[in-house]
Design brief:
Pfam families: Prok_Ub (PF14454)
InterPro entries: Prok_Ub (IPR032866), PRTRC_protein-C (IPR022289)
Protein name: PRTRC system protein C
Organism: Mucilaginibacter gossypiicola
Number of domains: 1
Distance between the termini: 51 Å
Length: about 70
C-alpha cells in the first residue's frame, strides 16, 4: 500500500477572485498558516477557516471573512 500526502492549498477571496496561497511549511498548523499570511493579508487575522475540501488531489482550505459586506 502506498500513502500519498495531499498538498495543502489555502484560498482567499480578493475582489471576488480566489487567490491561491501555497503552504509555507507543511509542519505548520492551519492557524499558524493563517498567522503567517496575516502580515500580507491583514483581513485573514479574523477569518474563519473551512475545509479541507479534497479537489484534484489537493487539500483545499478556505479563509472566509465577512468584513466589507453589508446585510
Amino acid at each position: 500500500m502506498k500513502v500519498n500526502k495531499l498538498q495543502r492549498v489555502f484560498l482567499h477571496k480578493v475582489n471576488g477572485q480566489d487567490v491561491r496561497l501555497t503552504d509555507p511549511n507543511e509542519n505548520f498548523a492551519i492557524t499558524d498558516v493563517q498567522h503567517f499570511y496575516g502580515g500580507t493579508y491583514p483581513i485573514l487575522t479574523n477569518a474563519k477557516i473551512t475545509g479541507p475540501e479534497i479537489i484534484n488531489g489537493e487539500a483545499q482550505y478556505r479563509f472566509e471573512t465577512t468584513m466589507g459586506t453589508k446585510g
